[in-house]
Each structure stands twice: as C-alpha cells, then as structure tokens.
Amino acid sequence: MSFEEFVSDDRIITILCREKCKRMRRSKRREPQNLDEELRLLMPSRREWIRINRSKRFLRDPLSSSKQHIPASVLHLKTLKYTIRKHRKSNPAKPYIPTLNSYIGHIMDICSGKEDFSFSKPSVIPKFKSEKDDEIIYRPISKYDTLDDKVMLSLTNQYLSHLFDSCLHEEILSYRIRRNYRGEKKITSQHDAIRSVKYYLSLHKDREIYVAECDIRKFFDILNHNIIKREFETLLKKTGAEGTDVIKKLFNSYIDSYSYSGDVLQKNPDRAYWNRHRVSLNKMNKTRKFDWVDPESFVENSVYSKKEWENERDSIGTPQGGALSLLVSNILMNAVDQAIVSEPDPERLFLRFGDDILLMHTSRQNCEELVRRYTESLLAHKLLNHPFRPVSEFKDDEKTKREFWDNKSKPVYRWGRGAGDASHWIGFVGYELSRDGEVRIRKSTLAGQFSKINRAYHQVRRLKDPDRKSVMRFGELAAEKLDFKNYSLVRSKLFCDTFRELNVNRYSLTQVKALDRYRNKKFRRLREQFRKAGFRSDFYLGKPFSFYYHFNKAGQGGKGGFSGLLAPPLASLYP
After folding, report:
1. Given this model, what pLDDT does residue 126 score?
2. What confidence tens digit (pLDDT) does each residue in 460-477 have?
3. Closest CA to 316 of 254, 262, 253
4. Residue 308: in which H helix or E strand, if any?
5. What is the DSSP pairing of strand 58-59 with strand 425-428?
6. DSSP string of 510-558?
7. pLDDT tens for residues 11-68?
8. CA gap 296, 213 in Å, rounded
9. Nearest CA to 426 among 345, 341, 359, 347?
10. Contact, 436 vs 205, CB < 8 A?
11. What is the DSSP letter of 395?
C-alpha cells in the first residue's frame, strides 16, 4: 500500500481531534496560541458536540461486574469524532465543515506529492535531567509548532510503523503497533519484557543464569543522519513497497530539520533563551545548560576520526519527544541487534526496550561473546554504550551497594546470591526481579509515584475556592469515577495495570503500603481544603482510594493476596 492510499479522511480527522482534545486539557494553564485558533476554525464549538450513546461511555471489561466510565480524555475524543462525522454527513452547512474539508484536501495533496512540503525547525524545550553543585543539566525536548507539521508527523509515523513492523525483530518491545507476540495479538510493553524474564527463569530455574545490561550514551543526541537514512532505505527495499518517493522525502526532511550542535548546543550561552524558562530563585545563580557527548571519547573508541567528527557533527542528533523519533530508534536499533538475533539460540534471552537491553544466557562464555559482538555492532553504527563496570565494584562481600542501581551498563555477571560478580536482583524497565522470582518496583520508579502524589497534593493545596470535584483529584483513583458505593465492584486500572507484573512478596507489600501511608499523610494536611469543599464526615481515604486494597482485590500474584505477609521497613529493601 502506498502512502497516498494509506491516508484517509478519517485518519486526518482523528489526528486533528486528538490535538484539539489535548489542547483543551491544557487551555487553563496557558495563553491561547496560533494553533488554537487554527483548530477552532476546523472543529465544532463545545456547545455543538453531540453526546455519544450511553453504552459507549463505559468500559467493556470482562473482569469487572459493574459499569465503569471510560476516562474523560477518551470520552472527549470519541464525542468530537462522532460529532464531526454526523455533521459532515447530515449537516454540511455548518460553518466549520468547508474549512475542515479544504484542510483535509490540502493534507491529501501533500501525501500524493501534488503540494511541496518539508518540516520546519522544531522549538527546543529544556526538561530537567540532573543537578550538580553549580549547574543544572537539561534534556532537549523538540516540539513542532505548526499544525501541518503535527499532522504530517503523525501520518508519516503511522504509515511507516505499519510498513516496517514485519521487518523488525520480535524482541523489540517498545513503540510497536498491535501485532502477534508469542501467541497473543497485542501492543507490546515493558510488562511483556518482565513476563519474558519470568518465563525464562522458570525454564532454567535449576541452572546458572548469566546476565548483561547495556545502555547507550546520549542515544537520541548522537544518532548519525547518514546511517539512519541508510537503514531506512534498507528496510524500505525489504518491504517491496511501491510509490515511495513522497515518504522518502518526508522522512529525510524530518531528519534534516534538526541537529544537536546546530539547534541545541548553541542555546547554552543564550541568556535570553534560559530567561524564558522559569527556575526557582535559589537556583538562579546556577549555570543551566544542555549536555552533550565528549568528542574525545568517540575518537578514542574509534567511533569517529577527528576529521569525520568535524565533518559530520552538524548531522548528528535527532529530535527527541515527537512521534516519529521513537520509530527512528527502532529502525536503527533493529540493524544493531542483528549481531545477536540473527542466529537462533534457545539458551539465550535478548530483550530491548528503547535503548536499554537485557541479555541472559546459561553459559558465561557465550554471554560474553554476545556482549562483545553487540558492542562492535554499536561502534559500527556510530553509537557508544555507557562504560561497563564490573558488578564486583559494587559489592561488599555478598551485600550489593546502592551504586549498583545507578550503573547503566554491566558486563556479564551471575544472577544469584554470592560475592564477586553476582547479584540476587536485576533491574529492567521499572521493575526489579530476584533469582527466587520475586518482583518489586524499582526504587526510581517508586519515587516517581511518590512525586505524583505530591504534585496532586500541591494542586489541591493551591486552590483558592475548592469544590468537591477539584479536591477529589487528590484521591488519584478518582479519575476512574470511583466513589464510596462502587469501589468494591470497579476494577481500578491506575495501579493494578501500571504494575501488573508485581507478584505477592514482602517487598511489593511494603512498597504498596508505603504509597498509601504517604498519600494519607498528605491528605491529613488538606483537611481544611476538604472542609471548604463541603466534605465533613462523608469523605475518607480508606478502601475506595487505597492502592493496597485495589491491588489486593485484583488478585495480583494469586488467591492469597497480601494477607499473612510480614513487611520489613521500606529503607531495608534497598541496601
């Protein structure tokens, strides 16, 4: 199927509706922008929306015996699409319809090659990454500002994702379309990676297992444009697709629209740029900057020669944050991974999520050979991993030090208890797994959940005239329309699905209860706000909004739930 045949009115309208709904959610937090005015002319006003059928406003969950409302964001998208479809069919005289039809025709002409188009330069937004004594390091997030850019990015990503998916190897688990994976049609996620590790552990429970972990340095910031285009052409030929001139031009235009040295590094000395982005007063004196790779490390590792680096530095780095950037990573890493996946090996487990890989094998020698081949493949594609540091550096006899979890690339070590190069726990994609099969939340991921509760607390605390609806946001689970009557019937997805691979053990028990304690502690500080909103004794944060209750009720890890388990202090879980 060609790009022109793939693009339809419905796809374009869905993209526009998503953008409209996204901007509606943010409208209270910022001033109107040019894009808001463009969308206003293309969309019906809020009062013209037609309510969808009642049956479509609830989740179809076979595991729940009650009717559960769909999230508000999904409801708005469905309602807006339904309204436009009805108006185009039965009431084409609506003022916005001719404008919308004209815009759809404009996009169709670009996709067919009748109109010339190239992506504009993205704006760069600094996102906090880390802080030192005298400086703050940011990650550059790229944002394409025009409506044409957003629509064409989304269409290009959708088409190429469908076109290339069959050419990517099976164990690329991130940013894939719905596909058959191990006998089940699904969109793979980080949970599938953990499930694969569990299964591999069950197969080799009585054998030694050796593990290696690898993470790429400054991944999006060091992708070479020429290599990306080369691998893109390779995959395009492999698909046998016809009429690819337009999609080639769009993809190359996207890659050429950005480079790290030209669009990011030059902002470091620009005080006007940094003054546009707020920071707390006690941090005003610190140097704020974007960090990049050390050129010497690339030259020393023979990734580039000095001459190559000077010639190619302006064609290095891809936008981070857009829909197409995730597909670009899969295109390139699929080529890198062939060093391992090209030869079948039933004793090997290789998983990749984004730029993180996890490699397991029952033979230390074979595992070390695979790591060697993989690092060579990275260098051949102008990439460099974080330095490998032996696990023994982070051991005090058999005890693992805290620095173990901060080390991003680990050479081959034995999965199990013991001194030297051995670890009883491994970490991957937000989870930690023990050699005994216990699963807990990774410490950094758990910290993110605490931060989420804290943000909700401050949102409610700052309300000048709180009402019942606004303060209920603090419950976290309130977004699922939970209340004090239906909480025992509704299957909450917020916690149970976010950490669905947790099993019942003393570590997961402690973590889940720690979240409840922290949230209740914050709630007690908001009693005055709840009183102003009209709540007296009819509101409490017990079972209806308890992570522990909903996690236990969902039957995670078996019939027994958490009952009977003794929980150690949270600090003792991370030596």
Report:
1. 92
2. 888 888 877 777 666 554
3. 262
4. helix 306-312
5. unpaired
6. HHHHHHHHHHHHHHHTTHHHHHHTT-SSS---SGGG-HHHHHHHTTTTS
7. 999 999 999 988 887 655 556 677 888 888 999 998 999 988 877 777 665 555 556 6
8. 24
9. 359
10. no
11. E
